[in-house]
């Protein structure tokens, strides 16, 4: 049996570091699709070096007959739409977990627009066989309470549809900030795309324009440093994060407001609109006795706040988590299982809510499993401030979004040892 890579983590008594965050994966992947649809002349600058973006770069560059995107969910959704409007025949596939992640809503929507897509194994799930050709476009309805990546995938191809796209979102709209990020990125390349009603987005059939474009750094990755600061026991701890933008369109930039409630204050070296700058995090006393928050607009922050609040022993109730079950793993079940190892009994209700009322059990301190999910490793690592010698299995999963995470933790004074060293 192959041995499992395991890291043993111990936090420093005092955190003081300057960290260059990775580029935004979300903006990178959107801009790459637009780059391919606009003539492939000017490659965006400061592209993310994470696995998901590298997979997309390779796929768009080579366009092989069979494209394996491995575990990259964004690439699967965006390429499904992109290949539908790109001449050629391709098989789009991924890992076993990817083959369990539903894609029927997106495929049905593209078929409604005239796309030629068939399932090669299981109905409603990858792999897909896609025969690309020009699509007419037109009006379309899609549920708003599923993955925003389905909606973004459709929007991104809107400008190359003959008649554009009028997209009506039915029901509750989740992850709206990610939809707004897509629209903002599209407009950077000359697209005419915007909300024309509270539930309707209109994209005209005006082609993208080739333009230079630089990608800002990632607010999702910043969230783990906010957590590290909140869990630090030293009031003099300080972290500086490079390459973030005040007024960012990234939905996860809301992290600065949430963590303000937990005593972490954010200051920007520059507040010039659109200018990447250095953000300084400082720790102040946290007076909060309970936290309730709806993560409908920023579900990728949920694991960070769940683990952080447990570490701070702050009871919480977090809603808007319905799509966590169809991510890289069932994140709700994974959080329940792994936090129990540390003595926290968190519970879910209605499939979209996690809460902790302070109930604890005896901690086994067994190694934290990561379930091939980068955000499990990223969000549990700061708990080493509370649990010295915290062990994490398969720490390499962070390469999906933050490849340099462990080195950055070392820079900040964390001891990161490989089991058996």
Automatic annotation (TrEMBL):
<dbReference type="InterPro" id="IPR006264">
    <property type="entry name" value="EPSP_synthase"/>
</dbReference>
<dbReference type="Pfam" id="PF00275">
    <property type="entry name" value="EPSP_synthase"/>
</dbReference>
<feature type="binding site">
    <location>
        <position position="149"/>
    </location>
    <ligand>
        <name>phosphoenolpyruvate</name>
    </ligand>
</feature>
<feature type="binding site">
    <location>
        <position position="147"/>
    </location>
    <ligand>
        <name>3-phosphoshikimate</name>
    </ligand>
</feature>
<feature type="binding site">
    <location>
        <position position="73"/>
    </location>
    <ligand>
        <name>phosphoenolpyruvate</name>
    </ligand>
</feature>
<feature type="binding site">
    <location>
        <position position="331"/>
    </location>
    <ligand>
        <name>phosphoenolpyruvate</name>
    </ligand>
</feature>
<feature type="binding site">
    <location>
        <position position="323"/>
    </location>
    <ligand>
        <name>3-phosphoshikimate</name>
    </ligand>
</feature>
<comment type="pathway">
    <text>Metabolic intermediate biosynthesis; chorismate biosynthesis; chorismate from D-erythrose 4-phosphate and phosphoenolpyruvate: step 6/7.</text>
</comment>
<feature type="binding site">
    <location>
        <position position="149"/>
    </location>
    <ligand>
        <name>3-phosphoshikimate</name>
    </ligand>
</feature>
<feature type="binding site">
    <location>
        <position position="175"/>
    </location>
    <ligand>
        <name>3-phosphoshikimate</name>
    </ligand>
</feature>
<dbReference type="InterPro" id="IPR001986">
    <property type="entry name" value="Enolpyruvate_Tfrase_dom"/>
</dbReference>
<dbReference type="InterPro" id="IPR023193">
    <property type="entry name" value="EPSP_synthase_CS"/>
</dbReference>
<keyword id="KW-0963">Cytoplasm</keyword>
<feature type="binding site">
    <location>
        <position position="101"/>
    </location>
    <ligand>
        <name>phosphoenolpyruvate</name>
    </ligand>
</feature>
<dbReference type="InterPro" id="IPR036968">
    <property type="entry name" value="Enolpyruvate_Tfrase_sf"/>
</dbReference>
<feature type="binding site">
    <location>
        <position position="375"/>
    </location>
    <ligand>
        <name>phosphoenolpyruvate</name>
    </ligand>
</feature>
<feature type="binding site">
    <location>
        <position position="25"/>
    </location>
    <ligand>
        <name>3-phosphoshikimate</name>
    </ligand>
</feature>
<feature type="domain" description="Enolpyruvate transferase">
    <location>
        <begin position="10"/>
        <end position="64"/>
    </location>
</feature>
<protein>
    <recommendedName>
        <fullName>3-phosphoshikimate 1-carboxyvinyltransferase</fullName>
        <ecNumber>2.5.1.19</ecNumber>
    </recommendedName>
</protein>
<feature type="active site" description="Proton acceptor">
    <location>
        <position position="300"/>
    </location>
</feature>
<feature type="binding site">
    <location>
        <position position="327"/>
    </location>
    <ligand>
        <name>3-phosphoshikimate</name>
    </ligand>
</feature>
<feature type="binding site">
    <location>
        <position position="30"/>
    </location>
    <ligand>
        <name>3-phosphoshikimate</name>
    </ligand>
</feature>
<feature type="binding site">
    <location>
        <position position="148"/>
    </location>
    <ligand>
        <name>3-phosphoshikimate</name>
    </ligand>
</feature>
<keyword id="KW-0057">Aromatic amino acid biosynthesis</keyword>
<feature type="binding site">
    <location>
        <position position="25"/>
    </location>
    <ligand>
        <name>phosphoenolpyruvate</name>
    </ligand>
</feature>
<comment type="subunit">
    <text>Monomer.</text>
</comment>
<keyword id="KW-0028">Amino-acid biosynthesis</keyword>
<feature type="binding site">
    <location>
        <position position="26"/>
    </location>
    <ligand>
        <name>3-phosphoshikimate</name>
    </ligand>
</feature>
<dbReference type="InterPro" id="IPR013792">
    <property type="entry name" value="RNA3'P_cycl/enolpyr_Trfase_a/b"/>
</dbReference>
<keyword id="KW-0808">Transferase</keyword>
<feature type="binding site">
    <location>
        <position position="400"/>
    </location>
    <ligand>
        <name>phosphoenolpyruvate</name>
    </ligand>
</feature>
<feature type="domain" description="Enolpyruvate transferase">
    <location>
        <begin position="67"/>
        <end position="409"/>
    </location>
</feature>
<comment type="function">
    <text>Catalyzes the transfer of the enolpyruvyl moiety of phosphoenolpyruvate (PEP) to the 5-hydroxyl of shikimate-3-phosphate (S3P) to produce enolpyruvyl shikimate-3-phosphate and inorganic phosphate.</text>
</comment>
<comment type="similarity">
    <text>Belongs to the EPSP synthase family.</text>
</comment>
<feature type="binding site">
    <location>
        <position position="300"/>
    </location>
    <ligand>
        <name>3-phosphoshikimate</name>
    </ligand>
</feature>
